[in-house]
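Side project, low priority. Logging it here so it doesn't get lost.
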Amino acid sequence: MENNSYRRLTRSTTDRKVAGVCGGIAKYLNIDPTVVRILFLVSIFFGFLGIWAYLIVWIAAPEDNQIER
């Protein structure tokens, strides 16, 4: 019997502004997407780590409708 109880980080297709990264992270962490977007903007002001992280997740994480179930 296969155990699919793990969560998977995906990009949101329903809660997206650009690529769905913040919406996907918010869904994974079970928090409001606005909080993730604000934290992302703050990370840009204190360095460019936020941009790199956003780009990496954009490339690496599949959209939530592309996951086989």
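Brief comment: The mean pLDDT is 84.
Revisit when time allows.
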